[in-house]
Amino acid sequence: MMTLNYNNPDLSTEERVSSLLSLMSLEEKIGQLCQSPMLEYDSKKQEYLSQVRSGLVGSRILADTAWAGNAPGETVDPEQINEIQRVAVEQSRLGIPVIFARDVIYGQSTVLPIPLAQSCSWNASLVTDAYRDVALEASSLGINWTFAPMMDVVRDPRWGRVIESFGEDPLLNGAMAAAVVKGFQGDDLASPGSLVSCAKHFVGYGASESGCDYDTTEISENTLANVYLPPFKAAINAGVKTFMSGFNDLGGTPVTSSKDLINGWLKKDHGFDGFVVSDWGSISDLHHFRVARDEVHAAAMALDAGVDMAMTSEAYQDHLHTALEAGLVTIQQIDDAVSRVLTVKFEAGLFEHPYVDAEKAQLCQRAPEHTNRAKELAQQSMVLLKNRDNLLPLVQNETKVAVVGPHAHTQRQHLGSWCLDGKSDDVVSIYQGIKDLIGEQNVLTEYSALTDEWVESAHRADVVVLCVGESHRSSGEARNIAELKLPSGQEEAIEAIANTGKPFVVVQCGGRPMPSQAISRHADAHLMAWQCGTETGAAVADLLFGRACPSGKLTMTFPKSTGQIPIYYNKKPLGKMRDFADYRGYKDVDRAPLYPFGYGLSYAKFRYSDVELMSVADGKVKIGFTLSNLSPIKATEICQLYFSRAYSSCTRPEKELIGFERVDIEACSSRHVEFEVDIDGLGYFETIADYVNPKSAVTFLVGPNSDDLLPLECTSSQLYQTEVN
Ligand code: GLC
């Protein structure tokens, strides 16, 4: 058969892949399935480059530790990337480019809010635009592939990795994940400003038992199908080109060896045509889990399940040959994996533009439009939880403000734990942001870590901004906490400021929902500032002084106490005691959260009214209502639509989010708002393969959050236009 020239960009990707595959040796094929970290690059350069020259390194992960940003790892060096790439392209036999990967989770030089914060904006289009900026900055440095978005549904804030998630709701997680994929991959994956993105961690990792990272996950098929898989479906629909299999054991099967989920649900049933990479060492873990007799069987199980590339390559590099010789895998399986990897490399344009322009790279880092967008997203990600007697917004110029507390001057913390390349010095601290806005003459502060110094400062001010919360070291991978409580000493610090009698705002920073008795009891106002990236301080100042109006709404329930966990809004109906009003769930605390999913205040007061069924036609139902802004300021309200079925063939949540919209509304005005819903979307999975939507009456619910809703009953005949008994 004539061998087509795979370097000819005029050929189809399929032709180029098959042409190249037909020329590859077994070693070169297995090499494409290996992603290696490079520890001590300089000292081991020659050894490493000779592996690249032999075609044994299909990918390189720009990380030298598996600690997910928790330890300062190696930086990105465009010259080093070019050096490696030149050997691959110009000195190896077939010239296949290496694909360079890095965890660009929520920022490069410009660092966005952590994903859990971003999701509180409910603003998918802004997230897409912000990630476009990140993709430009990262790809210009030579990074081709990133391991994001993470779309693990989370219900347990003890788990450190909630920072990377988009919260507890499948629909919102999916919408945000799709937004990130579109931002990273753009309209043209081959364009130099795009990054190959990665849907992770497939699947169920967020359900790690006891909130303990890497622990087992017990998820029923029904819950897997209705809660944990839908965000991954959304990512496939958005065109994500890679998936990452997780660390977790799922009901007896480690997901990295799950043929049903990877080759079955993902590749066969949902037509995923990209490739799957393992998580760091998750193939070797199969031997550790004792479901693989040895490392060779572990490699064979993973490839057989559909894992195409091994992150930290020892699993495939060292054992796939043996597995093939032993008949544990077939050359067809290897060829399929290699074809998937090569397809993504061709589609990413690596054969056409394998090198990076180091000079040009610096030009786009932290471009003003990037930092402006990061600030806008930070403003929309922060959530106003309390504002007693409308203390906020503070009045500029007439107010002497004391900015104190453990997070008044911090910078690194606002970058969150999963930040490899952001620089602490680039972060605008809360103090700096307020000072820049209202002038040094109006701001008091104390650099001291001593509460009595803060108190002294408070006494001299008209109002206090007390900045508390966790460090970035308390959340992120392998950083779980057993008790939801502020770092020691902070409850007392809040009490001490309260005892001054001064009006005070608490700005809470951190990577997870975190209740505080002292804040609930004493603070006049409470802003959840999360870890909002390089523009944190500027965004806090704009919100506190009314240059921006808070609009953020929680995407993860705030528990009252650790004992309530798992706690989330879309719970199934309660059994027996539900009708006894004094049944509280616990003797010591009721079942209600501190703040529910979807909750967040504005400086404007809104009213929802006149909910009505507008139309049912062409398989869609339209629900309309009136939103009124009762305040003399323009504002944005995140309107939410939930639904509840009267009948289902299996238990379903009492309410499920099915629509949301950010609605801008003028001062003292009303406007009609409509949601259009696919009636088919009211269904659910009975099993992983069976999606059903039995005819049923449905109650739609609109409102500002999952607890404060106006109902609209719809009979099944209205919805289905046929009578059902
Ligand atoms: C880590 C994480 C994963 C990350 C990968 C590479 O252990 O689980 O999310 O992308 O390894 O750093």
From TrEMBL:
Q: Per the UniProt entry, what are the Gene Ontology biological process annotations, in alphabetical order?
A: glucan catabolic process
* Cross-referenced InterPro entries: Cellulose_Degrad_GH3 (IPR051915), Fn3-like (IPR026891), GH (IPR017853), Glyco_hydro_3_C (IPR002772), Glyco_hydro_3_C_sf (IPR036881), Glyco_hydro_3_N (IPR001764), Glyco_hydro_3_N_sf (IPR036962), Ig-like_fold (IPR013783)
Q: Which GO terms describe its molecular function?
A: beta-glucosidase activity
Name a Pfam family for this protein: Fn3-like
Assigned keywords, A-Z:
Glycosidase, Hydrolase, Signal
Domain Fibronectin type III-like: residue ranges: 637-706
The record's EC number reads 3.2.1.21
Under catalytic activity, the entry for this protein gives:
Hydrolysis of terminal, non-reducing beta-D-glucosyl residues with release of beta-D-glucose
UniProt record similarity statement: Belongs to the glycosyl hydrolase 3 family.
Could you identify this protein by its name?
Answer: beta-glucosidase
Q: Which organism is it from?
A: Vibrio chaetopteri
